[in-house]
Amino acid sequence: MQLSIEPNNGIPIYEQLIRQVKFAVAEGVVVPGQLVPSVRELAKSLAINPNTVQRAYLELQNEEVIETLRGRGMAVCSGAKRRCVSDRQLLLGERLTAVVDEAIRSGLDVDRLREMFEKAIKQALRTEGVTE
Amino acid sequence: MSVAIKIHHVSKKFGRRTVLDNVSFEVPSGCVFALLGENGAGKSTLIRGLLGFHKFASGSVEVLGKNPTKETMQLRRMVGYVADQPGLYEWMTVAEAGWYASGFYAAGYLERYSQLAIEFNLPLDAKVRDLSKGMRAKVALSLAMAFDPQLLVLDEPTSGLDPLVRRAFLESMVDRAAAGQTVFLSSHQIQEVERVADYIAILHAGKLQVVAKLDDLKAEVTMISYSLRDPLLPSPVEFDRTEILSSSQTGRSFQLLVRGFKPEIQELLMRDSNLFDFKAVRPNLEELYIGFTQPTSDSGPLVPSPRTPVSEVA
Question: What pTM value is reported for the model?
Fold first, then answer.
């Protein structure tokens, strides 16, 4: 699991951590039962405050993405993947809403917006087709 | 929560120039606390006073429960300190510097020092005078950390160091904090502070501008930008319900840093037909820093002036 933190992009660091861990689980980069790095290890390797990592891990525990294995550390929960996939969709939905919102507010015609949306979908499918 | 450093109404003058003006704050134990401020803001003066290098003109300080000017020797045995220009004996080798310092600390110091020096890839038999700036800084850090101090004080630890050495310094700081020790540092590297700090304090021209938990500060301050269709009409009054920390204007576009911005205020603003291209985002530390050190850049007649909130928004 490769995490990268951008301290100054406006999103709090612990939130960036939560998102990236969830995305890694959703992608299957880390699988249920697999251990995640300890707070101290992760803090040191990313050079970020350990309390920030702790906060992110607590939140991930509350959301049942990771759990404590007694004496062994923290591991990805079984069933976490499904939750992370739906969380990712939620987050994508939010971003999409923000883009649509901006488009409408900037006075873009709705039909024109639909056209752009369709075009973006087609383009994405095309690139996907090439890489497959 | 116990307190590592207590600073109580501290002032200091050099000649007639006031360097520190009635500064008060506390550093909780077990956190990374960063002191920010421009060159000459008084950061080093404050730090040196905390270690008993000089007395403050007024006010009092307590570091790990000690009075720095009365219990200097005891305190220095408890605090690891890396000065902005570490004073090392030029003629000693890296190994000798550690051996020399070990005389002041409990047994085990030398072993730990050698271990740190090896981790930092320092050449043990090289003379200090032949070391680069980065290597000297690593020697100073190894000396400061070799006795596992409860409190590590770093005065601009990473200024002038290359990215790899800076990274090593940051990792060491983070590791200290993870072990429950307190790290107090001054810095200009805002991005680094944003990564590692729990708390920040901003000094500007000897005065404390703000002291806060970094996450809280980011959550309560909003950066707002908007433009006015007709710049001759008055600015929206809704901003009166927030505390404006700073504001700037370019043409008919405005940027404000405000505390206490609420969604209700945003809703009211969105109904203002004179207002367009409105954005409200969470500021990063650099924007906060600039906001707190240069309140109101070019205040034209349209810019609301900074003021304290008239009434709290419920």
Answer: 0.83
